[in-house]
Design the sequence.
C-alpha cells in the first residue's frame, strides 16, 4: 500500500491488522463510506505482488435494494460477475490502474465467488474477503471458516447498524462481529463517523440515519404527539417522535422528557416558535413534557437531550458508533453521575436508544478515547 495514502486512525489500525501475522481473521465493521473495502483490497493487491498471497477471493452478495432481495449468480448469470468486477474498478482503478486490474482478473489472481456456492471449495494462500456481510445469509460465516486453507486470511467487512433489511433486527455483519469477539487469532476494527472522509459519504451516512428513524414504526402515543406537533408547527420537518414516559417511570426518573421530537437539521426553530409558543401549545394540548432536537452527525446530542442530569451535557465529550453500540465518552470525574445510582441512567439511555435507533449505549471515560 502506498505510503502516500492518508489514512484515518482506524484505517491505519485496519492496515496493521491485515499485515499482522498473528491474525487469521480480521473483522472490520462500520458505516458505508469509511474505507473498509478500499483498505482491504489495496492491501490484498500489495501482498499479491509481494507473493504473500496467490490470489484474492472476493465473496460479495449483490442486492436489489428496491425489493430487499439478495441476488445470486443463478439469477443473473455472467452479469453477476461483471457487476462485482465493476465494483473493483470503481474502488481501485484510480490507485491501481485499469490494466492491472484487468490482468489480475484475467489471470484468476482476483477471483469473484458467489457466497451462495461455497460448498466444496478450499482457499489456500489466499486473502478471502467477505464484503457487504450485512447482506449475506448468516450460514455463510461458518461455511467460509470451513473453506479456509493453509496460508490464508479471512476478512469480513460490513455495516452492522444502518444497512438492515426491513423487519430484520440483526444483520449478518452484527452477528459476525459478535462471533469474532474474543475469538482466538482474530482482530476487530470498528470504523466510525470520523472515518467518513468523503463529503458524499458523510451525507450518505446522515441520510441513512434519517431514513432509519423515519422507517421506525411509531406507537399510538408517538403518533398522537406527531399529529399535534404537526398541526401547531406545519412547516417543521418532523422525522420521528420517541416515547420515553414509560422508561422514565421504569427507572424512577423525573427530568427526562416524556417524548423526544426529532426534526431535520436547521428546522428546530420552526417546531419551537420564536418564543417557544409552538412547543408550549403542543405540550399544553398533549399534557406532556416534550423536547425537540435536530438530527445532526453529532450523535452525542441525542444522548445529551434525554440524559436525566441536565448539566451532564457539559461533560459528555463525544459519542461514536462502535459495533452495534453508541459509545459515549464522558469526563471521568462525572462518570458516576452519567451512569446513575445502580446504573439507572445508563440503562434508561440504553433502552431509549434501542427504541430510537436499534443501538445500545455504553459509557467510557474520555481519557480512554485519547489512549
Sequence:
Amino acid at each position: 500500500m502506498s505510503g502516500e495514502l492518508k489514512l484515518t486512525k482506524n484505517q491505519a489500525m485496519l492496515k496493521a491488522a491485515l499485515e499482522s501475522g498473528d491474525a487469521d481473521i480480521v473483522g472490520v465493521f462500520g458505516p458505508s463510506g469509511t474505507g473498509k473495502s478500499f483498505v482491504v483490497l489495496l492491501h490484498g493487491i500489495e501482498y499479491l505482488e509481494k507473493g504473500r498471497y496467490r490470489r484474492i477471493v472476493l465473496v460479495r452478495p449483490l442486492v436489489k435494494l428496491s425489493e430487499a432481495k439478495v441476488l445470486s449468480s443463478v439469477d443473473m448469470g455472467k452479469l453477476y460477475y461483471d457487476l462485482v468486477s465493476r465494483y473493483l474498478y470503481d474502488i481501485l482503478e484510480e490507485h491501481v490502474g485499469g490494466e492491472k486490474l484487468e490482468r489480475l482478473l484475467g489471470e484468476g489472481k482476483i477471483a469473484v465467488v458467489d457466497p451462495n456456492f461455497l460448498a466444496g471449495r478450499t482457499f489456500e494462500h489466499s486473502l478471502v474477503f467477505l464484503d457487504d456481510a450485512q447482506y449475506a445469509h448468516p450460514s455463510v460465516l461458518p461455511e467460509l471458516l470451513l473453506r479456509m486453507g493453509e496460508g490464508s486470511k479471512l476478512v469480513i467487512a460490513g455495516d452492522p447498524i444502518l444497512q438492515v433489511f426491513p423487519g430484520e433486527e440483526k444483520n449478518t455483519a452484527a452477528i459476525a462481529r459478535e462471533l469474532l469477539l474474543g475469538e482466538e487469532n482474530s482482530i476487530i476494527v470498528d470504523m466510525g463517523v470520523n472515518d467518513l472522509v468523503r463529503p458524499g459519504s458523510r451525507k450518505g451516512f446522515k441520510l441513512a440515519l434519517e431514513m432509519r428513524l423515519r422507517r421506525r414504526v411509531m406507537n399510538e402515543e408517538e403518533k398522537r404527539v406527531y399529529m399535534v406537533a404537526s398541526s401547531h408547527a406545519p412547516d417543521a420537518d418532523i422525522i420521528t417522535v420517541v416515547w420515553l414516559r414509560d422508561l422514565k417511570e421504569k427507572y424512577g426518573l423525573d427530568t427526562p422528557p416524556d417524548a423526544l421530537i426529532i426534526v431535520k437539521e436547521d428546522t428546530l426553530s420552526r417546531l419551537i416558535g420564536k418564543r417557544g409558543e409552538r412547543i408550549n401549545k403542543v405540550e399544553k394540548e398533549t399534557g406532556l413534557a416534550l423536547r425537540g432536537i435536530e438530527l445532526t452527525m453529532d450523535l452525542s446530542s441525542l444522548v445529551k437531550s434525554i440524559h436525566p442530569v441536565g448539566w451532564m451535557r457539559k461533560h459528555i465529550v463525544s459519542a461514536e458508533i462502535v459495533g452495534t453500540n453508541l459509545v459515549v465518552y464522558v469526563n471521568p470525574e462525572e462518570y458516576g453521575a452519567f451512569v446513575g445510582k445502580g446504573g439507572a441512567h445508563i440503562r434508561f439511555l440504553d433502552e431509549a436508544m434501542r427504541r430510537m435507533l436499534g443501538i445500545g449505549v455504553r459509557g467510557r471515560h474520555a481519557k480512554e478515547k485519547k489512549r
Observations:
- DSSP finds 16 helices and 14 strands in the chain.
- The CA atoms of residues 139 and 172 lie 9 Å apart.
- The chain has a mean pLDDT of 92.
